[in-house]
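sanity check this:
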Amino acid sequence: MRAITRLGLTGGIGSGKSTVAAMLARHGAAVIDADAISRQTTASGGAAIDTIRQVFGPAFITPDGALDRDCMREHVFREPDARRQLERIVHPLVGLETARQTEAAIAAARRCIVFDVPLLVESGHWRSRLDLVLVVDCRPELQIERAMQRSGLARETVMGILASQASREARLRAADMVLCNDGLSLHELAQEVQQIAGRFGL
């Protein structure tokens, strides 16, 4: 059986990490998106919904059976321990689905499994599961501009998200490879990703 590379992919908001993940997928990498899995668990009918209803109450569930994100965001702001309660519900479910998708990628003989984890550096447990870490990096001001354009968020909101994430310096210290997405066109970014993909036989 040929070797499989487990590549951790991370970057701050607005860095272009999701674009890089999509490009790696087009080269044949199996991409496991931790954020997408987390959202699935709290969507209508998601695996976390019953427990969230039991722990937090029905007020935190929308009429269509999903987590009321606005309500939870306000609650977490007022009660910091609520975030830890929610994570204790969601994280094990994300871990199970991540393991399932990993096994599927191995069975499909993928050469590279990309674990797209926004909070990879913050989590503390991810590094030991990975062969390499790729950080998508750019200037903080560019991150802010991109996030505001993409999501329509206020500058203060984006600044708050940045403050809650690992610092740029901490991410760069954790990196085995850095893709500097600062001023690159999409074509130039695709060329950079193609070179990275080639390292893993993609």
The chain has ten helices and five strands. The longest strand covers residues 5-10.
